[in-house]
Specification:
elongated, 9 helices, Serine Threonine Protein Phosphatase 5, Tetratricopeptide repeat
Length: 199
C-alpha cells in the first residue's frame, strides 16, 4: 500500500512540474488560448447596439447557403397618395396668391378677387389666410366695406397677422358704428393704445 501512495504522489508531482514547465515555456504557452471575459463597458456597448432607435435604418442581413450577405439599407417608399400629389396643389395656390397681389397693386380688383378666390380654397392654411386678407383689401377698395369687415373679423378670430389686420378692422368698425362697434376688438390692442380708439 505504501509504495502505491508513493508512486501516486510522485506522479502528481511530475504532472505539476510538467504543467509549470509548459506554462513557463513561451512555445508551449502559445498553444493554450483562453478567451478573456468581456469587461462591463464592452458588454454595455454590445447591448446598446440592440437598443437602436426604431427610426434608425440599419443594414439588412440575409442568410444564404453560402454565408451572410449584408445589403445596403433600404428605406420603405412613402405611401402613394390617391389623386393629385399634395405638393403640386399648394404650389398652384401660391402662384394664384402672387397673381392676386400683383393684380390688386395694378388696380385690377376683379382679376385680383378671382386669383385670391382660387388661393383662398387652398389646403394650405397660411396661403388661404393670406388670400382672405387680399380679398378683404380688394373688397375695401371696391367700397364693399361690410364684406371687407367680415373678412378682417375672420382673420382676427384665427389670430392671423393681428398687428396688420386689427387697425383696418377697427377703422371700418369705427366708421360704420362708432366706438361701441369697435369696443369688442379693442382687447387685441396693447393697453396704452385702447384709450385713443375709445375717444
Amino acid at each position: 500500500m505504501r509504495p502505491r501512495h508513493a508512486i501516486q504522489a510522485l506522479l502528481r508531482k511530475a504532472c505539476q512540474l510538467t504543467l509549470l514547465a509548459a506554462l513557463a515555456s513561451p512555445s508551449l504557452a502559445a498553444t493554450v488560448t483562453r478567451e478573456p471575459m468581456p469587461d462591463p463597458a464592452r458588454h454595455q456597448a454590445l447591448e446598446g447596439t440592440a437598443d437602436q432607435a426604431p427610426d434608425a435604418v440599419a443594414p439588412s442581413v440575409q442568410r444564404e447557403s453560402v454565408g451572410t450577405d449584408i445589403s445596403p439599407p433600404v428605406k420603405t417608399p412613402p405611401k402613394l397618395a390617391r389623386g393629385k400629389p399634395a405638393q403640386r396643389q399648394p404650389a398652384r395656390d401660391l402662384e394664384a396668391l402672387g397673381i392676386g397681389w400683383e393684380r390688386l397693386n395694378a388696380g385690377d380688383t376683379p382679376a385680383a378677387l378671382a386669383s385670391f378666390g382660387q388661393a383662398e380654397a387652398s389646403t394650405d392654411k397660411l396661403i388661404s389666410q393670406e388670400a382672405t386678407l387680399g380679398i378683404g383689401y380688394a373688397y375695401w377698395r371696391q367700397g364693399r366695406e361690410a364684406q371687407a369687415e367680415a373678412k378682417f373679423k375672420a382673420l382676427i378670430e384665427q389670430g392671423f397677422r393681428i398687428p396688420e389686420v386689427l387697425p383696418n378692422l377697427l377703422y371700418l368698425l369705427y366708421k360704420r358704428g362708432g366706438p361701441k362697434a369697435a369696443e369688442p376688438y379693442l382687447k387685441y390692442l396693447p393697453e396704452n393704445e385702447r384709450a385713443a380708439w375709445r375717444r
